[in-house]
């Protein structure tokens, strides 16, 4: 097991939003016992108080790691988003601080695809409104507005990990699948790429959104886009709440332009299960409202816990940053018979030369060296003899442009 310049029991790991026990198990197996665990997200004040002493923080989609919070997190070494989305973290600011952000890009994608498939069937059959009526004592036994999914067209917007899996699942029901993506994508099954979103929306019986939150996807579906959709079609959003203009959707449901919708994500979501959920969609029986649970299955959460905790423990133990979303990616095996120095710096010309010069002047032998950069920062990993490591660390710290350094024995 790697020795650290800081003992492992002094490394504080802050876990928020009830991340799965599998994450705690991974950290404990890796020797990290100083874990502060919270079942819910923390308000900004409490978050700042807890994150101040934390070396690693793990969160899901509710916690906002903005500039104000990150500025107070002076000891922070790494961030783990125990989900796919990373929009809740100010990634650029974290990068400037030299803090890599990791996520779980695949682990819950099947869960989302399965939920959406189920919603497609339910909405085509008009089940949400029949269910709601039955709960109120009504009885809506009629084939009116009730259809099979077979033979209908599914339009997927954002044909990534979720969109592709949904497409394959929908084809097994006999649906025709078309998709729109800003990238040219390999079509799986018989799916067909459509190069205009407007055209896709006018062809599909059900449109399902699977795009990330970006400036381009902000309110991507509003009144004008809904107007292109087929009369009596269905809209599903399990991506991010900012993608759909909810007022426009509510009025399309009321006017019966759309026959139904399923929405899992909202522009403003309650901070905890004890807070009230407000939405213009409340009370519309043909809209399935779910509390951002697309990826919330036992299978997904357990796998995410293992994946993200594993990435954080690895970065802590040996400096590996593979799959970090805001940071130069370096894949490193465990170091043996040497100490490893990690140097994060502003990406300016000549820094590596300066480090090498400083080491040469002090007679520090470099056993291995790795460098990766982004436009903003550079990440150098060096291996030196352990008896020269402290001296090497001092030399590195003195280099102009250094953001932070770490020493792993
Ligand atoms: N509801 C949930 O619980 C839940 C769970 C997991 C993921 N998500 C959300 O779903 C999103 C998609 O997940 P994924 O794993 O499929 O991501 P992904 O990155 O694999 O796929 C996203 C796709 O969207 C495309 N895209 C990006 N911008 C676009 C645009 N403006 N127009 C059209 N296409 C665009 C990309 O090229 C990519 O193919 C995530 O970003 C996350 O926000 C929600
Ligand atoms: O678990 C969560 O809170 C977020 C789930 C989902 O939106 C994701 O981004 O993976």
From TrEMBL:
One of its GO terms (biological process) is L-serine biosynthetic process. Keywords: Amino-acid biosynthesis, NAD, Oxidoreductase, Serine biosynthesis. Residues 340-409 form the ACT domain. Pathway: Amino-acid biosynthesis; L-serine biosynthesis; L-serine from 3-phospho-D-glycerate: step 1/3. Belongs to the D-isomer specific 2-hydroxyacid dehydrogenase family. Catalyzes the reversible oxidation of 3-phospho-D-glycerate to 3-phosphonooxypyruvate, the first step of the phosphorylated L-serine biosynthesis pathway. Also catalyzes the reversible oxidation of 2-hydroxyglutarate to 2-oxoglutarate. It is an enzyme of class 1 (oxidoreductase). It catalyses: (R)-2-hydroxyglutarate + NAD(+) = 2-oxoglutarate + NADH + H(+); (2R)-3-phosphoglycerate + NAD(+) = 3-phosphooxypyruvate + NADH + H(+). NCBIfam families: PRK11790.1 (NF008759). SUPFAM superfamilies: ACT-like (SSF55021), Formate/glycerate dehydrogenase catalytic domain-like (SSF52283), NAD(P)-binding Rossmann-fold domains (SSF51735). It holds the Pfam family 2-Hacid_dh_C. InterPro entries: ACT-like_dom_sf, ACT_dom, AHAS_small-like_ACT, D-2-hydroxyacid_DH, D-isomer_2_OHA_DH_cat_dom, D-isomer_DH_CS, D-isomer_DH_CS1, D-isomer_DH_NAD-bd. GO terms for molecular function: (S)-2-hydroxyglutarate dehydrogenase activity; NAD binding; phosphoglycerate dehydrogenase activity. This is D-3-phosphoglycerate dehydrogenase. It comes from Shewanella violacea (strain JCM 10179 / CIP 106290 / LMG 19151 / DSS12). The gene is serA. Its EC number is 1.1.1.399, 1.1.1.95.
């Amino acid at each position: 097991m790697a020795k650290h310049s800081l003992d492992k029991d002094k490394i504080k790991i802050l876990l928020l939003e009830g991340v799965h026990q599998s994450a705690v198990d991974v950290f404990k197996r890796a020797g990290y016992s100083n874990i502060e665990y919270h079942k819910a997200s923390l308000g900004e004040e409490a978050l700042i108080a807890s994150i101040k002493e934390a070396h690693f923080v793990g969160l899901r989609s509710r916690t906002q790691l903005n500039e104000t919070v990150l500025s107070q997190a002076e000891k922070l070494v790494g961030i783990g988003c125990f989900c796919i989305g990373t929009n809740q973290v100010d990634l650029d600011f974290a990068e400037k601080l030299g803090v890599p952000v990791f996520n779980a890009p695949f682990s819950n994608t099947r869960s989302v695809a399965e939920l959406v498939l189920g919603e497609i069937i339910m909405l085509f059959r008009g089940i949400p409104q029949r269910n709601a009526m039955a709960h109120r004592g009504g009885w809506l036994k009629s084939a009116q507005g009730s259809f099979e999914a077979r033979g209908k067209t599914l339009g997927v917007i954002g044909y990534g990990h979720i969109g592709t899996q949904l497409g394959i699942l929908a084809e097994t029901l006999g649906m025709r699948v078309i998709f729109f993506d800003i990238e040219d994508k390999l079509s799986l099954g018989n799916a067909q790429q459509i190069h205009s979103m407007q055209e896709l929306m006018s062809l599909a019986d059900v449109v399902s959104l699977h795009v990330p939150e970006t400036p381009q996807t902000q309110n991507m579906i509003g009144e004008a886009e809904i107007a292109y959709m087929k009369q009596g079609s269905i809209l599903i959003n399990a991506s991010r709440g900012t993608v759909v203009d909810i007022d426009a959707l509510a009025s399309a449901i009321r006017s019966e332009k759309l026959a139904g919708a399923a929405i899992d994500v909202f522009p403003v979501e309650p901070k905890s299960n004890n807070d009230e959920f407000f939405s213009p969609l409340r009370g519309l029986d043909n809209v399935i409202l779910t509390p951002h649970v697309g990826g919330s299955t036992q299978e997904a959460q357990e796998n995410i816990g293992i994946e993200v905790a594993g990435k954080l423990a690895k970065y802590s133990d040996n400096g590996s940053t593979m799959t970090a979303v805001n940071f130069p990616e370096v894949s490193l095996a465990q170091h043996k018979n040497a100490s490893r120095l990690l140097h994060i710096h502003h990406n300016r010309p000549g820094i590596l030369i300066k480090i090498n010069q400083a080491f040469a002047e002090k007679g520090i032998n470099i056993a291995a060296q790795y460098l990766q950069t982004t436009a903003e920062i550079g990440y150098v990993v060096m291996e030196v003899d352990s008896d020269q490591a402290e001296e090497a660390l001092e030399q590195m710290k003195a280099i102009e442009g250094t953001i932070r350094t770490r020493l792993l024995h």
